[in-house]
Amino acid sequence: MFYLxxxxxxxxxxxxxxxxxxxxxxxxWYVMYNTYEWKRYFLFCNTVTGYVVRIYGIxxxxxxxxxxxxxxxxxxxxxxxxxxxxxxEAITRYLKEGENGEYGLTGKEEIKTxxxxxxxxxxxxxxxxxPQRKNQHIINHLVNGMPLQNGESPLEKMARYLDKYTExxxxxxxxxxxxxxxxxxxxxxxxxxxxxxxxxxxxxxxxIQILFGWTxxxxxxxMDSSWEHxxxxxxxxxxxxxxxxxRFVTLEAAFAEKKPWTYIYDLGDYWRHTITFRRETKNLAxxxxxxxxxxxxxxxxxxxxxxxxxxxxxxxxxxTHEEHDFLRKWFRSIPYNPFDIHTINADLxxxxxxxxxxxxxxxxxxxxxxxxxxxxxxxKPGSRVIPAKHILDTIIxxxxxxGIIHKDKVKEIHDAYEGEPIDVDTYESLFNTPxxxxxxxxxxxxxxxxxxxxxxxxxxxxxxxxxxEGKPYHLPKKEAFYxxxxxxxFEKNEAYHELLRYLETNHFPNDKQKAANFLDDLVGMxxxxxxMHLLLQEFTETSLSFKTLEDAQDALDLxxxxxxxxxxxxxxxxxxxxxxxxxVPPASEALFGEFSSxxxxxxxxxxxxxxxxxxxxxxxxxxxENPVS
Length: 629
Fold this sequence. Notes:
The protein has 629 residues and is an alpha+beta fold. Helices cover 40% and strands 15% of the residues. The strands form three sheets. The chain has an eight-stranded mixed beta sheet with strand order 10-9-8-11-12-6-7-13. A five-stranded mixed beta sheet has the order 4-3-2-1-5, with helices on both faces. It is flat, with a radius of gyration of 30 Å.
């Protein structure tokens, strides 16, 4: 690395005055310092990208030997790059190339101006300055994620330059999926939140306030799973030395062990929230926090905690109650915000980080399409309060695994997994008046069955139900079963990974993500009963080709193997191989002859008119019987 320190920096460390340098590349860093709470912090600004590394409290003796400061900087830079989501290989190779340290002076005013601009931009984040550590990685992440005048952030510019150091995606954005439940005994109020891992507990406090309609007018605390460590804003607890600063704990650190946390809001009413880590996803796009699932209304503040809220609901809904009129008048007078998913996500998105690309916007819109529905309207307090969370998860998982299932079987599965039977009246009420969360997860009720939305077209559920008759249910272990609460989950077994390796090696050697996306599309077609020749046809539709007949035969064998090992709705979650060996017939060379024909017709969609001229949809006529070349 090559450093361009100011004269003040050279004097502070008693370095010999260096010669002037005109160097300006990805390994060059302008160095300046300022003061915060009686200690100096040093700002290293890359002269090409504007990427900054802020290091706090370096004493003169720690940098008297220039190489010692060089080592401190390299360690801080590595930590910041990893925290931002850069690929480890790119970081290692970049630092290796810049492992030697030199310094000089610069006379270029544009370099000094750029660094000063970055210093001023970072001043609004001084509240995140942690006096207990040198590298201020949280502030670094905030500043580096802010767009410059040309609309590109230092993070994005750094990614462009480091891209050459790895064949993988150089920068990915890790997002945590958190379930946040307001503990109300037998009443169920929860929100599901997607949030970048770089946020802090203090940030999460603000987002929980938005998610539950709180007014942020009371004190709050976070507690880890041991209930021995407390986090909040120390200035709110000046006499409590046990309170740690929530601004300095990132979600990455908080959920390093994937254990639940507790959040308390209003130490009087004591609203306790349980925060559970569900999973981490890595996205190519940078997204703002977004609420993807919810159940239950916002709860009015100052109502007396969980016990007072239950009493309030009873009086509010009972005209004969002596406090009915008083509580209704009181409720109209307080700043109560009804839950509305669209307003919530608009408020969440207004925080940092901003959506900075069309790719991120498309990802966010996809999420909003999945959760958006007309049911998000103002309701009276207490509406959509559904007890027994696990029965909803059981319904959603069962429908995703089996496609269609009788309500009695769902209850049987729930009671077996949870070890405690759900109340029959509660369950019947849930079935007769399904909560909106089931619609959000593509689950509907028909007759006495829960049915996936995909089977409602032309009453396909009847056909699947007939094919299921006499077949046993696939009942995995509890943890594996509830993975199916994710509507896009499917079991990626060895057959899947064999075909993925084939695609990565033979058709997508430089883009593993494209290989995975292509394979996931094939799996979707298999679930939709596409015949094998149309699956192979997808290769040429995607501008892929087979070099030899043996290459095509390998692909078909892998496709057949994957098909025979996929869990199917018509098999009640079993794979064809689990029920009967050889359900899918072996491929013939005639199939390859049709597939490789140069006179290929346009692929017919399942819902397109059948080419035979019957007037029916293709899926209800010749699909699977008359191959389309």
